[in-house]
Structure formats: C-alpha cells, structure tokens
Amino acid sequence: NAGVMQNPRHLVRRRGQEARLRCSPMKGHSHVYWYRQLPEEGLKFMVYLQKENIIDESGMPKERFSAEFPKEGPSILRIQQVVRGDSAAYFCASSPGLAGDTQYFGPGTRLTVL
Amino acid sequence: QQQVKQSPQSLIVQKGGISIINCAYENTAFDYFPWYQQFPGKGPALLIAIRPDVSEKKEGRFTISFNKSAKQFSLHIMDSQPGDSATYFCAASMGKKLTFGTGTRLTIIP
C-alpha cells in the first residue's frame, strides 16, 4: 500500500509566479490535510479537506492561497503570486476519516521562491 | 489557546542512555497527543500516541507519560541508539487539526 505521495518534491518559483503542489492520499483515505513548515520550526496547520469539500481552512492565509480535493485526482494546494516568505516545506497528510484517526504524512514539497 | 510548548530545543544523549522530551499544552479540549519523528528531508512519521484517559503508554523503547492535571506529556526513549538521531515533534489535536510543538533535535553520540 503506497504511502502519501506529493509532487513535485522540490519547486523553484520566481516572485509573482504561481506554485501548484499536489498530494495523492493513501489508498482508501478520504481526508487530506496541508501543513507548512518553516526552517527550524514545527508544522503549522493550513487546511483540512474531504472529497470536494473544505472542512477547515482556519490556517490558510486569506489571500493568494487556495486548496481543493476534487472527486477524482489529487488534492492541490495553489499559491498565487508567490513571495519570498512563501519559501517553506509543505506537507500533506491523509487519514481514513474515522474519529480520532492517525494522520500519515507525505515526504513534502520544498518550495523556494527566488 | 492552541499552543503546544516543547523542550528542549536540542538534546545530546549518549548511546544507551534515556532521551526525554517534554511538552506542555494549554487547551484542555485537546484529546489526542501524538509524537512524530522526522529525519532530514523526510515527512514526519508517527511514533506513538496517547489519549488523556491513560497516564502512560509504552511501545518498544518508546514511552509516553501523560499528566492531565499538569497539562504535560513527555516522550522517553530508552536505550537510545544512533539511529534515533532525528527531530521529534509533539502534537495535540481536538478533532482533526494537529497543533505541533516546535521540535527537539536529538543527537545520540557513541
């Protein structure tokens, strides 16, 4: 059973460009979470999605960031007009959707904004 | 408050020794407390987790001690090995959102 997959693993963008990060959850998992990790810091929650629904986006910046988890295909975290402060590791996690279940993390996408 | 405070920031332990990492939380509504291990360039991997109705949980060399009244929990790694060298994060959740501590960089020396 493949784990959570994220791509690309590394992404370089210039200021003002768009960054699109993809996450394929573990097989059978219907819940996806996105976290951001700045250098030397812990992970910060961004958004929690189920198929076709955003459940909790309380950690998402109000502007430039959006997330989706369509009925078919991976979850996408989209950052428009990137700035240097967006440089970080972005981790996706998934869970089966049961109450209190474990979140399994992917390897992350390391975004560098030049 | 949603904060989880973790200490120490870094820890050096001799091989065979006990590594202890502490966390404290503020929100009494938290009901799930996992510990994650992260190696450089990798995603966090669940190590062990506990719920507040239990004061201790042991899995192999890893033990969580939980003090509900003090709102503190700790990770103990017995017989620490060089392969345990990694960054460890405590976390707490209420529902689905994990709130992480700032991490402890553990180094096991021969």
Q: How would you sum up this structure, described in words?
A:
The complex is a heterodimer of chains A (114) and B (110). With 114 residues, chain A is mainly beta. Helices cover 0% and strands 49% of the residues of chain A. Chain A has no helices and 11 strands. Chain A has strands at 5-7, 10-13, 19-24, 31-37, 43-50, 53-56, 65-68, 75-79, 88-95, 104-105, 109-113. In chain A, the strands form 2 sheets. In chain A, strands 2, 4, 5, 6, 9, 10 and 11 form a 7-stranded mixed sheet that branches. In chain A, strand 4 and strand 5 (43-50) form a beta hairpin. Chain A is globular, with a radius of gyration of 13 Å. Chain B has 110 residues and is an all-beta fold. Chain B has no helices and 11 strands. In chain B, strands 2, 4, 5, 9, 10 and 11 form a 6-stranded mixed sheet that branches. Chain B starts with a strand and ends with a strand. The model of chain B has no long low-confidence stretch (mean pLDDT 94). At the A-B interface, strand 4, strand 5 and strand 10 of A face strand 5 and strand 10 of B.
A few lines on this structure:
The complex is a heterodimer of chains A (about 110) and B (about 110). Chain A is mainly beta.
Q: What is the N-to-C order of secondary-structure elements of chain A (H for helix, E for strand)? A: EEEEEEEEEEE
Chains forming the largest contact: A-B, 25 and 23 residues
Percent of residues in β-strands of chain A: over 45%
Helix percent band of chain B: under 10%
Let me know the largest β-sheet of chain A.
Answer: 7 strands, mixed
Low-pLDDT windows of residues of chain A: none
**Average pLDDT score of chain A:** 93
Structural class of chain A: mainly beta
Number of helical regions of chain A: 0
Residues in helix, % of chain A: under 10%
Radius of gyration from the alpha-carbon trace of chain A, in angstroms: 13 Å
Q: Uncertain runs of chain B with pLDDT below 50, 5 residues or more?
A: none
Q: How many DSSP H or I helices of chain B?
A: 0
Radius of gyration of chain B: 13 Å
Report the end-to-end length of chain A measured between terminal Cα atoms: 37 Å
Order of helices and strands of chain B, N to C?
EEEEEEEEEEE
